[in-house]
Amino acid sequence: MTSRAPYIVIFGGTTRPNSSTEQVLHVCETSARSRGAVTRFFSAADLQLPLYAPETALSDTRARELVEALRRADGVIVGSPGYHGGISGLVKNVLDYAEELSSDSRPYLDGRAVGCVACAYGWQAAVTTLSALRAVAHALRGWPTPYGLAINSATTRWDSPEHPDPGIVQGIDVMVGQVIDFATTAIRASQAPAAPLNEEVLKT
Ligand SMILES: Cc1cc2nc3c(=O)[nH]c(=O)nc-3n(C[C@H](O)[C@H](O)[C@H](O)COP(=O)(O)O)c2cc1C
Protein backbone atom coordinates (compact mmCIF):
# COMPACT_ATOMS: atom_id res chain seq x y z
CA MET A 1 0.00 0.00 0.00
CA THR A 2 1.35 3.46 -0.85
CA SER A 3 0.98 5.75 2.11
CA ARG A 4 0.42 9.49 1.92
CA ALA A 5 3.30 11.93 2.32
CA PRO A 6 3.97 12.97 5.92
CA TYR A 7 3.01 16.55 6.76
CA ILE A 8 5.79 18.16 8.77
CA VAL A 9 5.44 21.49 10.57
CA ILE A 10 8.69 23.41 11.03
CA PHE A 11 8.75 26.51 13.22
CA GLY A 12 10.97 28.81 15.23
CA GLY A 13 13.96 31.05 14.69
CA THR A 14 14.57 34.64 15.61
CA THR A 15 13.64 37.92 13.93
CA ARG A 16 17.34 38.79 13.57
CA PRO A 17 18.38 39.12 9.88
CA ASN A 18 20.33 35.95 8.92
CA SER A 19 19.12 34.21 12.06
CA SER A 20 21.24 31.07 12.35
CA THR A 21 18.33 29.20 13.94
CA GLU A 22 16.12 30.01 10.99
CA GLN A 23 18.80 29.02 8.50
CA VAL A 24 19.16 25.63 10.18
CA LEU A 25 15.38 25.21 10.01
CA HIS A 26 15.42 26.00 6.28
CA VAL A 27 17.99 23.24 5.74
CA CYS A 28 15.76 20.94 7.81
CA GLU A 29 12.91 21.80 5.45
CA THR A 30 15.01 21.02 2.36
CA SER A 31 16.00 17.69 3.92
CA ALA A 32 12.36 16.86 4.80
CA ARG A 33 11.17 17.68 1.29
CA SER A 34 13.92 15.58 -0.28
CA ARG A 35 12.47 12.67 1.71
CA GLY A 36 9.01 13.23 0.24
CA ALA A 37 7.45 15.21 3.11
CA VAL A 38 4.98 18.02 2.63
CA THR A 39 6.13 20.89 4.85
CA ARG A 40 4.71 24.00 6.47
CA PHE A 41 7.27 26.56 7.63
CA PHE A 42 6.54 29.22 10.25
CA SER A 43 9.39 31.70 10.59
CA ALA A 44 9.88 34.02 13.56
CA ALA A 45 8.14 36.75 11.54
CA ASP A 46 5.04 34.52 11.29
CA LEU A 47 5.19 33.70 14.98
CA GLN A 48 4.83 37.12 16.56
CA LEU A 49 1.63 36.10 18.29
CA PRO A 50 -0.05 37.70 21.29
CA LEU A 51 1.11 36.26 24.60
CA TYR A 52 -0.79 33.01 24.94
CA ALA A 53 -4.00 33.39 26.95
CA PRO A 54 -6.47 30.46 26.97
CA GLU A 55 -9.53 32.75 26.89
CA THR A 56 -8.58 34.61 23.71
CA ALA A 57 -5.99 32.39 22.03
CA LEU A 58 -7.89 31.67 18.83
CA SER A 59 -9.03 35.22 18.16
CA ASP A 60 -5.78 35.79 16.26
CA THR A 61 -5.79 34.56 12.63
CA ARG A 62 -2.07 33.65 12.66
CA ALA A 63 -2.53 31.71 15.87
CA ARG A 64 -5.44 29.77 14.36
CA GLU A 65 -3.29 28.90 11.33
CA LEU A 66 -0.49 27.67 13.57
CA VAL A 67 -2.79 25.60 15.78
CA GLU A 68 -4.48 24.01 12.74
CA ALA A 69 -1.11 23.13 11.22
CA LEU A 70 0.03 21.52 14.48
CA ARG A 71 -3.25 19.62 14.71
CA ARG A 72 -2.68 18.18 11.23
CA ALA A 73 1.05 17.55 11.69
CA ASP A 74 2.52 14.06 11.37
CA GLY A 75 5.80 15.38 12.74
CA VAL A 76 7.24 18.62 14.08
CA ILE A 77 10.61 20.36 13.97
CA VAL A 78 11.15 23.24 16.37
CA GLY A 79 14.15 25.55 16.55
CA SER A 80 14.98 28.01 19.33
CA PRO A 81 17.92 30.26 20.03
CA GLY A 82 19.48 29.89 23.45
CA TYR A 83 18.46 33.06 25.26
CA HIS A 84 19.95 33.30 28.75
CA GLY A 85 20.38 29.56 28.80
CA GLY A 86 16.86 28.62 27.67
CA ILE A 87 14.13 28.75 25.05
CA SER A 88 13.40 32.24 23.72
CA GLY A 89 10.14 33.87 24.79
CA LEU A 90 8.91 33.90 21.18
CA VAL A 91 9.35 30.15 20.72
CA LYS A 92 8.03 29.25 24.18
CA ASN A 93 4.94 31.36 23.51
CA VAL A 94 4.32 29.37 20.32
CA LEU A 95 4.71 26.11 22.21
CA ASP A 96 2.16 27.37 24.75
CA TYR A 97 -0.40 27.62 21.92
CA ALA A 98 -0.28 23.79 21.73
CA GLU A 99 -2.57 23.97 24.76
CA GLU A 100 -5.34 24.54 22.19
CA LEU A 101 -4.86 20.88 21.17
CA SER A 102 -5.49 19.54 24.68
CA SER A 103 -9.00 18.23 23.92
CA ASP A 104 -8.14 16.68 20.54
CA SER A 105 -8.45 12.94 19.94
CA ARG A 106 -4.65 13.10 19.63
CA PRO A 107 -3.99 15.57 22.46
CA TYR A 108 -1.13 18.05 22.10
CA LEU A 109 1.62 16.38 19.99
CA ASP A 110 0.62 12.87 20.99
CA GLY A 111 2.13 10.20 18.73
CA ARG A 112 4.26 12.68 16.80
CA ALA A 113 8.06 12.83 16.54
CA VAL A 114 9.56 16.19 17.52
CA GLY A 115 12.94 17.19 16.12
CA CYS A 116 14.58 19.83 18.33
CA VAL A 117 17.15 22.43 17.22
CA ALA A 118 18.95 24.85 19.56
CA CYS A 119 21.42 27.52 18.43
CA ALA A 120 23.43 29.58 20.91
CA TYR A 121 26.65 31.54 21.00
CA GLY A 122 28.35 28.82 23.04
CA TRP A 123 27.92 25.13 23.90
CA GLN A 124 26.46 25.61 27.34
CA ALA A 125 23.29 27.44 26.26
CA ALA A 126 23.00 25.32 23.09
CA VAL A 127 22.85 22.15 25.19
CA THR A 128 20.61 23.50 27.98
CA THR A 129 18.19 24.91 25.39
CA LEU A 130 18.10 21.60 23.52
CA SER A 131 17.28 19.84 26.81
CA ALA A 132 14.54 22.38 27.53
CA LEU A 133 12.98 21.86 24.09
CA ARG A 134 13.02 18.11 24.62
CA ALA A 135 11.37 18.50 28.03
CA VAL A 136 8.58 20.56 26.45
CA ALA A 137 8.16 17.97 23.68
CA HIS A 138 7.75 15.29 26.38
CA ALA A 139 5.24 17.46 28.26
CA LEU A 140 3.25 17.76 25.02
CA ARG A 141 3.26 13.94 24.74
CA GLY A 142 5.50 14.09 21.68
CA TRP A 143 8.51 11.88 21.01
CA PRO A 144 11.73 13.89 20.83
CA THR A 145 13.98 12.22 18.28
CA PRO A 146 17.02 10.37 19.63
CA TYR A 147 19.23 12.76 17.68
CA GLY A 148 18.85 16.46 18.52
CA LEU A 149 20.77 19.45 17.23
CA ALA A 150 22.77 21.66 19.60
CA ILE A 151 24.57 24.20 17.42
CA ASN A 152 27.25 26.57 18.58
CA SER A 153 26.77 29.63 16.35
CA ALA A 154 30.13 31.02 17.52
CA THR A 155 32.08 28.23 15.84
CA THR A 156 29.79 27.16 13.02
CA ARG A 157 30.47 28.55 9.57
CA TRP A 158 27.02 29.33 8.33
CA ASP A 159 26.95 31.63 5.33
CA SER A 160 23.40 30.88 4.15
CA PRO A 161 20.97 27.97 3.79
CA GLU A 162 22.53 27.43 0.33
CA HIS A 163 26.06 27.15 1.82
CA PRO A 164 25.65 25.46 5.17
CA ASP A 165 28.33 23.89 7.31
CA PRO A 166 28.73 20.32 5.95
CA GLY A 167 29.11 18.84 9.45
CA ILE A 168 25.81 20.34 10.57
CA VAL A 169 24.06 19.17 7.41
CA GLN A 170 24.95 15.57 8.29
CA GLY A 171 23.38 16.00 11.72
CA ILE A 172 20.30 17.65 10.22
CA ASP A 173 19.83 14.72 7.85
CA VAL A 174 20.01 12.23 10.72
CA MET A 175 17.47 14.15 12.82
CA VAL A 176 15.07 14.89 9.95
CA GLY A 177 15.35 11.25 8.83
CA GLN A 178 14.23 10.17 12.31
CA VAL A 179 11.23 12.54 12.24
CA ILE A 180 10.14 11.35 8.79
CA ASP A 181 10.67 7.63 9.55
CA PHE A 182 8.59 7.92 12.72
CA ALA A 183 5.84 9.79 10.87
CA THR A 184 5.81 7.35 7.96
CA THR A 185 5.60 4.35 10.30
CA ALA A 186 2.67 5.94 12.17
CA ILE A 187 0.84 6.74 8.91
CA ARG A 188 1.31 3.17 7.63
CA ALA A 189 0.13 1.73 10.96
CA SER A 190 -3.01 3.89 10.86
CA GLN A 191 -3.78 2.68 7.33
CA ALA A 192 -2.99 -1.00 7.90
CA PRO A 193 -5.82 -3.46 8.53
CA ALA A 194 -5.75 -5.05 11.99
CA ALA A 195 -3.72 -8.27 12.15
CA PRO A 196 -5.92 -11.41 12.28
CA LEU A 197 -6.31 -13.06 15.68
CA ASN A 198 -4.19 -16.16 16.15
CA GLU A 199 -6.72 -18.58 17.65
CA GLU A 200 -4.02 -21.12 18.54
CA VAL A 201 -2.23 -18.61 20.74
CA LEU A 202 -5.49 -17.68 22.48
CA LYS A 203 -6.12 -21.35 23.43
CA THR A 204 -2.76 -21.73 25.21
C1 LIG B 1 18.48 38.05 24.60
C2 LIG B 1 19.63 37.16 24.21
C3 LIG B 1 20.13 36.26 25.12
C4 LIG B 1 21.18 35.41 24.77
N1 LIG B 1 21.65 34.54 25.69
C5 LIG B 1 22.64 33.68 25.35
C6 LIG B 1 23.16 32.76 26.29
O1 LIG B 1 22.74 32.70 27.44
N2 LIG B 1 24.16 31.95 25.90
C7 LIG B 1 24.64 31.96 24.62
O2 LIG B 1 25.53 31.16 24.31
N3 LIG B 1 24.16 32.82 23.71
C8 LIG B 1 23.18 33.68 24.05
N4 LIG B 1 22.69 34.56 23.12
C9 LIG B 1 23.19 34.47 21.75
C10 LIG B 1 22.24 33.61 20.88
O3 LIG B 1 21.93 32.38 21.49
C11 LIG B 1 22.93 33.29 19.56
O4 LIG B 1 23.28 34.49 18.92
C12 LIG B 1 22.03 32.47 18.70
O5 LIG B 1 22.80 32.01 17.63
C13 LIG B 1 20.88 33.35 18.27
O6 LIG B 1 20.20 32.80 17.23
P1 LIG B 1 20.03 33.52 15.83
O7 LIG B 1 21.36 33.50 15.16
O8 LIG B 1 19.00 32.61 15.22
O9 LIG B 1 19.50 34.91 16.03
C14 LIG B 1 21.70 35.45 23.46
C15 LIG B 1 21.19 36.37 22.54
C16 LIG B 1 20.17 37.21 22.91
C17 LIG B 1 19.64 38.20 21.88
Count the beta strands: 7
Give every kind of bound small molecule, once each: flavin mononucleotide
Q: What structural category arises from helix and sheet content? A: alpha/beta
Helix content: 40-55%
Shape: globular
Task: Describe the oligomeric state of these chains in a short phrase.
Answer: single chain
Helical run tally: 6
pLDDT averaged residue by residue:
94
Low-confidence stretches: none
- Report the major sheet: 7 strands, mixed
Residues in β-strands, percent: 15-25%
Measured between the Cα atoms of the first and last residue, the distance is: 33 Å
> Can you write the helix and strand succession as a string?
EHEHEEHEHEEHH
Radius of gyration from the CA trace? Answer: 18 Å
Q: Could you please describe the fold and organization of this structure?
A:
This protein is α/β, with parallel strands linked by helices and 204 residues long. The chain is 41% helix and 18% strand. The chain has six helices and seven strands; from the N terminus they run βαβαββαβαββαα. The chain has helices spanning 20-34, 61-72, 89-96, 123-139, 166-191, 199-203; strands at 7-12, 38-42, 75-83, 86-87, 113-120, 143-144, 149-152. Strands 1, 2, 3, 4, 5, 6 and 7 form a seven-stranded mixed sheet that branches. Helix 4 (123-139) links the parallel strand 5 (113-120) and strand 6. Helix 1 (20-34) packs across helix 5. The model has no long low-confidence stretch (mean pLDDT 94). Bound molecules: flavin mononucleotide (FMN). Residues 13-14, 16, 19-22, 81-85, 119-122, 125, 153 line the site of flavin mononucleotide (FMN). Flavin mononucleotide (FMN) binds next to helix 1, strand 3 and strand 5.
